[in-house]
Amino acid sequence: MEGNLNLVGYGLSAIGGGIGVGLVFAAYINGVARQPEAQRVLQPIAFLGLALTEALAILGLVFAFVL
């Protein structure tokens, strides 16, 4: 068996990013469904969670090519 496991690591980080985004927006939708007037407060928090989760997936891609 030849090669390295960099691409497997990227695949795991992509799966983790997808699960993370799903959890962030599930919590956002649940919060807005319970209190619709809190949408203005929850929406920026949800987008911040999305950005941080996707940043980790992009870091996984970068490390897969660098290492």
From TrEMBL:
The record marks E54 as: Reversibly protonated during proton transport. Residues 10-67 form the V-ATPase proteolipid subunit C-like domain. Keywords: ATP synthesis, Cell membrane, CF(0), Hydrogen ion transport, Hydrolase, Ion transport, Lipid-binding, Membrane, Transmembrane, Transmembrane helix, Transport. InterPro entries: ATP_synth_csu_bac/chlpt, ATP_synth_F0_csu, ATP_synth_F0_csu_DDCD_BS, ATP_synth_F0_csu_sf, ATPase_proteolipid_c-like_dom, F/V-ATP_Csub_sf. GO terms for molecular function: hydrolase activity; lipid binding; proton-transporting ATP synthase activity, rotational mechanism. GO terms for cellular component: plasma membrane; proton-transporting ATP synthase complex; proton-transporting two-sector ATPase complex, proton-transporting domain. Pfam families: ATP-synt_C. Its main location: membrane. The chain crosses the membrane at residues 12-33, 45-66. It is a multi-pass membrane protein. It is found in: Cell membrane; Membrane. HAMAP family: ATP_synth_c_bact (MF_01396). F(1)F(0) ATP synthase produces ATP from ADP in the presence of a proton or sodium gradient. F-type ATPases consist of two structural domains, F(1) containing the extramembraneous catalytic core and F(0) containing the membrane proton channel, linked together by a central stalk and a peripheral stalk. During catalysis, ATP synthesis in the catalytic domain of F(1) is coupled via a rotary mechanism of the central stalk subunits to proton translocation. Belongs to the ATPase C chain family. This is ATP synthase subunit c. It comes from Arthrobacter oryzae.
